[in-house]
Specification:
This protein has about 240 residues and is an alpha/beta fold. The chain folds into two domains: about 140 residues, Rossmann fold, CATH 3.40.50.1220; about 80 residues, SIR2/SIRT2 'Small Domain' (2-Layer Sandwich). Helix content is about 35%, strand content about 20%. It contains eight helices and eleven strands. Strand 6 and strand 7 form a beta hairpin. The structure holds ligand BJW and zinc ion (ZN).
Length: about 240
């Protein structure tokens, strides 16, 4: 029998050990008395673009100084060692690419990409801090916004389709560091399970997915390398 087909879904917890606060952070998820959920909406941006940009600029500054951790590194290694492997992330921090993963399906966009609310203008922008805020489109003068997916917005169609197909055909779904409450990402592991596959969850806490999964509780920077070492030994896979 060949190696199992594996699909992975990551969330903010995979980057916690790199120093990036999770979305619904332990500190109550508050930034200047605002809940992150209330700022990550098109309505908040329409009402207060400067405030929303200050929130994203703050996070860009934080992320800019962070490096991938051992969990990102293991996922990059899996990418090179497994013949059928798909990495899907809800994260916007770019750390999977920095760790060397070659192909990453980004469901919620990228914090280093910005786009115009009106025309097709898009750019990669790594300036930290970003100034002036809010930035304006050089083509039409309208507002630029982070190229991320806010609540009520649709996910990039091609990425979502590829992610759904990968989870459907997977023998094993690994779910790493996500609260598994944001849809449609949260339903992907069930595609694997409905076809007879297994879900493994790596999280410091139980989530709504836990009753349907085998849980590896603890920081994923520790549990994922441990699981991978065990998997390689069981499969007779040499470490690269
Ligand atoms: C560790 C750890 C360590 C800590 N090691 N683990 C079906 C049912 C109900 C609602 C909906 C539904 N379908 C759609 C909706 C609406 C909505 C939704 O899901 N709402 C629910 C919250 C109720 N979904 C949408 O609006 C989506 N769009 C959509 O569906 O379009 C079609 C449509 C439109 C309109 C109506 C209906 C349908 C879009 C969702 C976009 C989400 N965007 C965000 C912001 C991105 C930009 C930004 O970052 O600012 O994405 S929200 C936020 O949540 C962010 C994250 O990617 C996402 C997931 O969070 P994540 O990664 O799980 O982080 P946390 O903080 O929640 O959890 C961290 C976890 O790590 C915890 O479990 C910790 O325990 C763990 N952890 N340290 C391992 N060291
Ligand atoms: Zn424009």
């Amino acid at each position: 029998m060949g190696l199992p087909r594996i699909a992975v879904l990551t969330g903010a917890g995979v980057s916690a050990a790199s120093g990036i606060p999770t979305f619904r952070d332990a500190a109550g998820g508050l930034w200047r008395q605002h809940r992150a959920e209330d700022l990550a909406t098109p309505q908040a941006f329409a009402r207060a673009p400067k405030l929303v940009w200050e929130f994203y600029d703050h996070r860009r500054q934080r992320i800019a100084g962070c490096r991938p951790n051992p969990a990102h590194a293991i996922l990059a290694e899996m990418d090179t060692r497994l013949p059928d492997f798909t990495l899907v992330t809800q994260n916007i921090d770019g750390l999977h690419l920095q760790a060397g993963s070659r192909r990453v399906l980004h469901l919620h966009g990228n914090i280093w990409q910005i786009k115009c609310v009106f025309c097709d203008y898009r750019q990669e922008n790594r300036q930290v801090p970003l100034s002036p805020l809010p930035p304006r489109c050089p083509e039409c003068g309208d507002l630029l916004r982070p190229d991320v997916v806010w609540f009520g917005e649709t996910l990039p169609w091609a990425e979502l389709q590829q992610a759904a197909r990968a989870f459907e055909r997977a023998d094993l779904a690994l779910v790493v560091g996500t609260s598994a409450v944001v849809y449609p990402a949260a339903e992907l592991p069930f595609y694997t399970r409905h076809r007879g596959g297994e879900i493994l969850e790596f999280n410091t806490e139980a989530t709504p997915l836990s009753p349907h999964a085998t849980s590896w509780f603890g920081p994923s920077a520790e549990t994922l390398p441990r699981w991978w070492a065990q998997f390689c030994a069981e499969q007779g896979l040499a470490r690269g």
